[in-house]
Amino acid sequence: MEIIVFEDVHAKYEGYIYKGALLFVSGRVVKEIDQVRLVADEIMLLEDAAADMASSVHLQLTVEGLSGEPLKELRQLLKTHPGSCPVYLHFGVGQQTVVVQKLPTSFRIRPNKELQGRLTKQFGKDCLEVRYGEPHVA
After folding, report:
1. What integer is the mean pLDDT of 52-60?
2. How far apart are CA 84 and CA 5, in angstroms?
């Protein structure tokens, strides 16, 4: 599909447009007899789009592993990545989820690649689920 980027949009997003960049482009579709084109309204790096379009983040945590220091580290991690995405903590004992707690709005985050990496390093590779497509209120 051909993407048309007019001068005003190009000027606004030119820092993202370079050879090899993986981009997320939104705009309007223009259908012609023999082809379909996308007229760009917004351009962002694919990585940024994934973080910005997340609708919720779910952290699976075990009660056993959540004494003082890990909980403080979790709080600090979330506070240093503010955004509009709600966070849900799923507390479990073994494989069984016991309690699901939605964190206050002051803990909403932007689940970028850095934060996801730090969370999985701290709490394990299976602790994190980023969900898309569920609307949330900022």
Report:
1. 91
2. 29
